[in-house]
């Protein structure tokens, strides 16, 4: 849960780098919360859709920010996130990029976040 909260604390921070662990833990917890909201939404009907919509809008900017920081960690520009707009291939390529290990040491986007933890 701390990784999820860390991303939310950096709500719209697009600079810097994000480790694989930070990115994937955020994605996992976000998916679990979304599933819970969808389950609740099915029980309460129309208001469930509104609840899902509100959550999706609230989490949009932090999701984009952590994705951009993840790309920075592997030495890519944050603009590479636009590759996801290419149907199928773009999503697969973005998945591959987010799985790659980050660059060791500092790069043009900042210090190695893994070095801070170790």
Outline:
With about 120 residues, the protein is mainly alpha-helical.
Task: Write up what this structure looks like.
With 118 residues, this protein is mostly helical. It has one domain (2-117). Helix content is 65%, strand content 0%. It contains 5 helices and no strands. The radius of gyration is 16 Å and the shape is globular.
Count the domains.
1
Q: What's the overall geometry?
A: globular
Radius of gyration: 16 Å
N-to-C CA distance = 20 Å
Count of β-strands: 0
What share of the residues does DSSP label as strand, in percent?
Answer: under 5%
Main beta sheet: strand number and arrangement?
Answer: none
Lay out the secondary structure.
Blueprint (H helix, E strand, L loop, with lengths): L1 H8 L10 H25 L1 H28 L15 H11 L13 H5 L1
Helix pairs in contact: 1-2, 2-3
Q: Keywords for this structure?
A:
mainly alpha, single chain, 5 helices, 118 residues
């Amino acid at each position: 849960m701390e990784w999820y909260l860390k991303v939310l604390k950096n709500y719209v921070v697009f600079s810097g780098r994000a480790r694989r662990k930070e990115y994937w833990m955020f994605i996992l917890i976000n998916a679990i919360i979304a599933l819970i909201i969808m389950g609740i939404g099915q029980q309460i009907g129309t208001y469930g859709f509104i609840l899902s919509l509100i959550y999706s809008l609230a989490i949009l900017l932090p999701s984009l920010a952590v994705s951009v920081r993840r790309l920075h960690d592997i030495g890519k520009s944050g603009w590479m996130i636009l590759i996801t707009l290419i149907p199928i291939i773009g999503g697969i390529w973005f998945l591959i990029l987010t799985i790659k290990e980050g660059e060791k040491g500092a790069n043009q986007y900042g210090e190695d976040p893994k070095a801070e933890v170790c």
